[in-house]
Design brief:
This protein is an alpha/beta fold. It contains seven helices and seven strands, in the order H-H-E-E-H-E-E-H-E-H-H-H-E-E.
Length: about 230
């Protein structure tokens, strides 16, 4: 695995985007059907879970009772404060902590599962972040992912590449629309258990962030790097 990198807990700072996201995210979740996908993403989880980029805590209410603890990492201060409030409203124990995905502030092999939900688009170093997720999972532990990414050809894929080179990351908190989450997860050494492609929202004119994938990958029981 790549050597760990130390990053400041508040290395991510997008106050304008954070306020916008906090104000409209719950309504968008319901209108676009994202809440339903969050519930599917987390269904059947148990044990200790680490969530990468928890935002304002919209996943928290969907964790099943079999989860004994959630360590929710959120590097953006405004969103982290909102996540702390959300954690107080759910029954599953949730500990919201600062930190960056590229340098997770937790011990190796400490978690039964990891959750990446609409976050891999915005991490600064995707391979390093996925390497860190693999490090903190126990052998055989699951990575649950719900991510938007590169369209499968056509005009939209071209538009995505153009936006990523220009205004989209600046306007949307470092987000990139043309990343390939499936390819990156497999390249990081995870075994793909299953996934399905979907569009969010299902109807209407597609946005650059509409192509999504929801699935499960697993850290191999016998890690190649060990």
């Amino acid at each position: 695995m790549a050597p760990r990198t130390k990053l400041a807990p508040d290395a991510v700072h997008h106050p304008v985007f954070a306020r916008f996201y906090a104000r409209y995210s719950e309504a968008v979740d319901l209108k676009a059907g994202i809440a339903r996908h969050r519930a599917e993403l987390l269904d059947g989880l148990s044990g200790r879970v680490i969530e990468i980029g928890a935002g304002n805590g919209l996943n928290f209410a969907h964790y099943p009772a079999a989860v004994s603890e959630v360590v929710a990492l959120e590097p953006e201060r405004t969103l982290r404060q909102l996540a702390v409030r959300a954690a107080l409203e759910v029954e599953v124990p949730v500990d919201v902590v600062p930190g960056a995905a590229e340098a997770l502030p937790v011990k190796s092999e400490a978690f039964d599962a990891a959750v990446a939900s609409l976050v891999l688009c915005s991490v600064r170093d995707l391979p390093r972040a996925l390497s860190e997720i693999r490090r903190v999972l126990r052998p055989g532990g699951e990575l649950r992912f719900f991510e938007h990414g590169r369209a499968q050809g056509g005009v939209l894929a071209t538009v995505q590449r153009g936006l990523d080179r220009t205004v989209w990351p600046m306007l949307f908190g470092g987000c990139h629309t043309a990343r390939d989450p499936l390819g990156a997860i497999e390249a990081a050494g995870f075994e793909m258990v299953g996934h399905r492609r979907l569009r969010v929202p299902e109807r209407g004119i597609p946005a650059p962030s509409s192509p999504c994938v929801l699935g499960v990958a697993r850290r191999p029981a016998l890690d190649r790097d060990e």
